[in-house]
Amino acid sequence: MRFALSEDQALLQHSTREFFAAEFPMERNRQVLEADGPGFDPAAWARLAEMGYVGVTVPAARGGQGLGAVELAVVLEEMGRHGVPGPLFDAMLAATLLAAAPGHEALLADLLNGRRLVTIARDEALYAGPAAVDTTFADGRVRGTKHYVPFGGSADALLVTTTDRIVIAHGPFAVTALPTFDPGERFASVIVDGGAEPLGPLTLLEPIDRLAAVGAGALLLGIMAKLLETTVAYTRTRQAFGKPIATFQALQHRMADMLARTESTRAAVYRAAWCIDTGDPDGALACAAAKAWAGDAARLVCGEAIQMHGGIGFTWELDVHFYLKRAKTLEQHYGATGAQLERALAATGY
Amino acid sequence: MDLRLSPVHLAFRDELRAWLGANLRRPWRDELRDPGHSEDSLMQLRRGWQRKLHHAGYLGLDWPREWGGRGATAVEKAIFDAEMAEADAPQIPNTLGIGLLGPALIHHGSEEQRRRFIPSMLAADEIWCQGFSEPGAGSDLASLKTSAVLDGDHFVLNGQKVWTTFGPWADWIFVLARTDPKDRYGGISFLLCKLDTPGVTVRPLRQLTGESEFGEVFFEDVRVPRANLVGHVGEGWRIAMTVLAYERGAVGLAMANRYGRDLRELAAACRDLGRTDTASREKLARLVVENDVLRAAGVRMLATLAEGRVPGAESSLEKIMWSEFDKRFRETALDLLGPGGQLLRSAPGARSEVDWAREYLWSRAGTIYSGSSEIQRNIIAKRVLELPQDGR
Questions:
Q1: A:B CB pairs within 8 Å
Q2: Residue B202 has pLDDT above 90, yes or no
Q3: Residue A313 has what DSSP assignment?
Q4: Are A249 and B378 an interchain contact pair (Cβ–Cβ within 8 Å)?
Q5: Record: contact A1-B389, CB cut-off 8 A
């Protein structure tokens, strides 16, 4: 029994950390985040793809790395920690979905090597509420409107959910940007109306949903770990009443709670990832619990990070707000908390 | 990562399950709701259960073989706790004797002390209570004032201890007493005192649950033979701190099993009572989620032990997690059950699957005993986050 990463996993963690630290320093990330553009630097995206990150969970026979959810979590935790902007997570999910069905080799290869961007288009509701899928597929044509399509403005193809299956739609699409307060995610509303090819049944999404829950949980974990570090470092240097504010017990206890939330999230996310990789029957509950918990935990950690930075915490200048905004997106997408709670009840049969 | 139990551990778990199937007459909750029981008869039942476990070789599991143990690993000990929780087995009366005093004697006691005290402790022939806390020394344990003054070949004890678990049933108490008023930590010694020694008064302490599982112990010129000093004079604090580490096993998994059982009952009760509205469902789901996260943390802790690492401040995180969750869980259970959740066992119509009223009240204790949540946060702040300390 071992919770610690295997040697290979630890190596992946180390190399990913080094790579992100070198290629995605926060000063550079901020330029991308603050610009109106696609939400990522195409050159940096090409390097990410070249490193094989898009295909972490894609079987080796399909051109991916053939690794599991644990490795996906390792990469995404680092992505969250370093505030790496761009569509990596969305592309990973799309690649995994694409690889779940036979065929479509050219598109999958292009997605894996960064020549074409593919994401998944699912949502049809702008606000919370009944999100029935009305998009249809008939006679080789897909018709419908999708909201919150990740990086929809840059996508060359979309994996579109319809009333009875998943189809591959090729761009260009009629796209309207859907800016939110999180510049780390570039959503768009996309009208799909054109030729498409079937990918497979909607049930292909079940494992993707679990992978998305774990992946979003891992991103949130990275964000929390980073903000806790930042907050501890800041309170150690910030002086008030003649001493570092980190000496105040009122703050110490709250930082202890930040750690408690972060570490419990770590346990939940990696256990859930492990359950996916081993087909453990506890997986359905573990994935739902990890995502629901991570979303809540991040609320506390991000909120406390801003509060303990005081006035500077409310400024644009400090990086913390980018993490807060990212965390809110991750909480409300990839299976929002409410959906995960329902899955948790379904998994237990309660 | 590999979160599977090893074949050896799986075999141990299966053996334990088989043994429980053959030896546990009925779950503890059923004993509790049996109107034929009194506090005394429940205590007798616990004694009997401890003897059964002892005869089967399940007590002092992780102690060296010569002291009745199996030389088992911390992982097996945690599996044992988790299985006992899952089966809802009675708690043994000598929890603290076996949990704290046993290790203290094994590591710091004399050969004579080990021979004299360990067998009777394991067999539940002598029940031990813990004399650490005082009315004026709880979280700040080192401020304890109970004094032990050497007089010939005896220590003379004066003072008061409180929160002595099972005090009213105990035969012996292990006491932290001050042998040097000027040395905060080095002036504390570890003594063993028989409770029928002249000058000892034990009074049951009624808890807010209405029960008296705890007691107060008063010492008035009590003469304790010098032979009952564990370790050397002034070593008490060090001994206490090392053995307290034994109390911190991987309890998360055992707790998740226990809460998981009660959650199943709560879900069934919600169905019975028609509490299937969205708000109720969300409350239930949040409990399910948090308990599963507690389970994940417990699995992680078990793996930490299996990797051969000694959990340090991680146990503080685990303690905060289960004890704070227990409070939220029981509070939410009362929300879901409505006023009926407050009914005493004896009330007509009281639900019998779990004593929800009692569990609610009991959950108030977990964040106080064995190091309050505040102390755990201090430990995390200091040892994990390494935050600067301000004269504390």
A1: 154
A2: yes
A3: G
A4: yes
A5: no
pLDDT of residue B392: 47
Residue contact B303–A2, C-beta within 8 A: yes
Q: Is B365 helix (H, G, I), strand (E, B) or coil?
A: helix
Contact with chain B for residue A10, Cβ under 8 A: no
Interface membership of A93 toward B (CB under 8 Å): no
Q: Are strands A243-244 and A239-240 parallel, antiparallel or unpaired?
A: antiparallel
Domain boundaries, chain A: 7-112, 118-200, 205-348
Contact residues, B window 271-310, toward A, CB-based 8 Å cutoff: 281-282, 284-286, 288-290, 292-294, 296-297, 299-300, 302-304, 306-307
Q: 3-state SS string over A167-190?
A: EEEECCCEEEECCCCCCCCCEEEE
| CATH superfamily entry for domain A118-200 | Butyryl-CoA Dehydrogenase, subunit A, domain 2 (2.40.110.10)
A7-112 domain in CATH 1.10.287.70? Answer: no
What CATH class has A205-348? mainly alpha
Q: What DSSP state is assigned to residue B184?
A: T
Residue A34 CB burial class (10 angstroms; 0-12, 13-18, ≥19): exposed
**Beta strands B188-194 and B172-178: pairing type?**
antiparallel
Residue length, chain B? Answer: 392
Look up residue A221 and give its two tokens.
């974990």
Show me where the domains of chain B are located. 7-92, 128-244, 248-384
Task: Collect the ranges in chain A with pLDDT lower than 50.
Answer: none
* Whole-number Å distance between alpha carbons of B120 and B185: 31
**Reported pTM:** 0.95
User: Does residue B247 have an active-site annotation?
Assistant: yes
* A243 vs B9, B307, B390: nearest CB: B390
- Cβ distance B191 to B157 under 8 Å? yes
A263 contacts in chain B (CB < 8 Å): 297, 314, 317
Residue of A67, A248, A252, A265 for testing the chain B interface, max B β-carbons within 10 Å: A252
Identify the band that residue B109 occupies on the pLDDT scale cut at 50, 70 and 90. Answer: very high
Contact A255 B381 (CB under 8 A): yes
Residue type, B224: V
Say yes or no: A246 contacts chain B, CB-CB below 8 A: yes
The architecture of the domain spanning B7-92 is: Orthogonal Bundle (1.10)
Token readout for A19 is 């790579």
Instruction: Please state whether beta strands B172-178 and B128-131 pair in parallel, antiparallel, or not at all (unpaired).
Output: parallel
Q: Do B1 and A232 touch (CB under 8 A)?
A: no
Q: Could you report the per-residue pLDDT of B317-327, keeping only the tens digit for each?
A: 999 999 999 99
Q: Please tell me which residue, B30 or B71, carries the higher pLDDT value.
A: B30
User: Do residues B287 and B329 make contact, with C-beta atoms less than 8 angstroms apart?
Assistant: yes
* Positions of E strands within chain B: 128-131, 147-151, 154-165, 172-178, 188-194, 200-205, 214-225, 229-230
- Structure-block tokens of residue A207: 């494992």
Q: Are B252 and B297 in contact (CB under 8 A)?
A: yes
Site from B270, B293, B376 to mutate, A interface, most A CB atoms within 10 angstroms: B293
Instruction: Verify whether the Cβ–Cβ distance A259 to B1 is below 8 Å.
Output: no
Tell which CATH architecture fits domain B128-244. Answer: Beta Barrel (2.40)
Q: Does residue B375 sit at the A interface (CB-CB below 8 Å)?
A: no
Q: B248-384 — its CATH code?
A: 1.20.140.10
Note whether A344 contacts B: Cβ–Cβ < 8 A: yes
Catalytic, out of B126, B211, B235, B247: B247
Q: Could you identify the residue written with the tokens 């996309």?
A: A190
